[in-house]
Amino acid sequence: ERMTGDLMQDLRYVLRSLAKAPGFTAIVLLTLALGIGANTAIFTVLNAVLLRPLPFPDSDRLVAIRETFGPGLDPIEGSVAGPNVVDWRTRSHSFSGMLAFRASSRALIGDGEPEQVFTAMVSADFFRTLGVPPALGRGFAAGEDQGVGTVAVLSDGLWRSRYGADPSVIGRTITLSGQPYTVIGVAPPGFTYPGNAVAWLPMEYGLGRSAQRSSHSYDVVGRLAPGVTLEAAQADLSAVARALEKEYPVENGGRGSRAVPLAADTVKAARPVLLLLGGAALFVLLIACANVANLFLARAAVRQRELAVRSALGAGRWRLARQVLVEGVLLSLAGGLIGLLLASWGVDLLVALRPRGIPRLDEIGVDHATLGFAILVSVVVGVGFALFPALTLSQGDPADAFRGEGRGVTGARSGGRFRAALVVVQVSLALVLLAGAALLVVTVRRLALIDPGFDPRGAYTFEFTIPPGKYPDRARHDQYLTRVVDAVSQVGGTRAAGATFYLPLGNGQVNGDYTVAGAPPAAPGKEQYANFRMVTGDYFGALSIPLRRGRLLTPDDRAGAPHVAVVNEALARKAWPNQDPIGQRLTFGDGQDDPDWMEVVGVIADVKSSGLTVVEGPEIYVPFAQITADLWTVFAPLPVSVVIRSDDNLAAVGGAVRAAIRSVDPDQPVTGPTPAGELVAGAVARQRFGMLLLLAFGGLALLLAAVGVYGVMAYAVSQRTRELGIRLALGARPGTVRALVLGQGMVLAGLGIGLGLVGALVLGRLLVGMLYGVQPADPRVLAAVAALLATASVLACLVPAVRATRVNPVDALRSE
Question: Residue 146 has what DSSP assignment?
Fold first, then answer.
């Protein structure tokens, strides 16, 4: 009880003391709120994306399984062929369940406006393997993924938004892309895996590409059986892959398998940038703590006489030190609460921006873990920055303060050295953050200068899925696509219009092996691979892709005409070095079983398809009307991307194109328009996201560091009032006094800049994977950042330096 009473008394005293120093209180609260708020916001993101388990029971037992192919110790990972999924499931003994899925886009028609929705075709054991039973109705039964699918499970969001959360939706028939499905279940709230799926349909094993071992188009997730380790499961899968390679040398030659934890696989692309931002936020917090610690040291020094009086009245050293700790923790908790509010706003803004490449965005939000983190950080920070002043008070004799100014500050020398060290740390951390931000700024600028191989200016994209139920055969399907492209071409202001199935720098690719006429068949595992692009209309003109040789595809390249192809420069160099590619022939596949030979009629510029920094690989463009029946079954269900080049603005193009497509089919939902420039912007989204946040943190760090330098120098000038007064009385020039103060401040800044440059070199090496066109130790970048810190330090020292020359020598000597 006595301890509680003493603490309450200390608390009341601290509150009165802080009320008498509103300026000090406000600066400390603002500094702590910025530091703690930045860290709390980043922790919220890290917790949701990296730390929190996936929203599945025993999610640590789930693994992503992929096929591997290509030479070397680090083969390429890719999707899995349907028959291989079946063999993995039946032959391996390490999994209690193994699901497969393929994302797709479908047109939802009826019960409202036509809508393009994201769906997933899944195997029958999808919900069981994930351990997520539907909240209403049932999941898929065994065998429902064989043959044509007729049932569907809806997401909770679609059930509520489209069907008013009506329980009688079970048993109801809905239409997706012209095909009827009977609703058998509704998923639990929040469940949208994979991606943002709003409906799940059966896989349709045995039909189309699901029956082709050469068609690798499925993602696979397995649940490890009890007691089975990841290593044992990998060995089991590798044995199955080797057996399949022997049984199917053509389709499975050189193909293996790889299993990785599903959680790590989900966030692998976002992990580096998020960890970088976590470190940046920590640096900001350390700088904020250093600033507040300096303020506390200065405040403790100013209050020496007050503390001496309290000591003379019987307050022990521990009691005095404890009050400093109580003051620190109280301020830190208050700053933490303000920081929590700032973090909440920051997280909401981040989620609203929906940065590309950051998974699990919908799971990000302030929760109990965020609140606990903010409180913990606040307490630790409060104790941390108040600890040195408290120790100083507990070790010195406050009564010394009565013995005269200049000798009465307890631990003056040690306190001064500690404050100087804190400033050095602040400046060095600020330089590290600014150097990282500067490197990313240069990277984003250099990426923006890369030629993507097409001109996005004035180009717009739309996406839709042709309903297979409405256009079930090739003749009607192809006719409908042609009519849509023709209708779009007639829109006013349109200079060119065409269509393809995956846009460059978009969200997918279709690739496979190819064979050049006259070349010997490739050995299994040694095939040449290229991206396949099926186009119609004036696709090349719509994206303004330059023609290098020959001609482009024309409307005359229709079904029944001689089969032709256009290739990119990368394929021409690889397939026919030092030869004219025009007139050469190639085919998809190994060229053995009734190959479809195509004559090369044109060579176009290389287009950046997989990424701006990825070396262009071979690409083959063919008219959609001329592809073989088996390839048609691969491409027909894919979303169609229409591209137009127009003189009109975004709003005018959007309404006109949607009207043109609806004139062909009133029930056709369309997604778009989207400026083609978004394709390029998306390719640098990861670097731009990291750059913007590092710039924000770096700017905040620069401000706090400058405030820290100013505070230390202002306090140093106040402590040297008598000395400076004597110097001026003895005839010292004001410029000499200013140089003295500036020199003292710049020595601290110089030490900080030197240490910061070392830290910047370390950070640059960690950023290598995100940099382009700039070296981690680029001298121009480091020099610019160092100059910026030096300038900020000079400005921070200038006010105290000028104030030092205004000391009245008479007043300075009278104070003695």
Answer: B
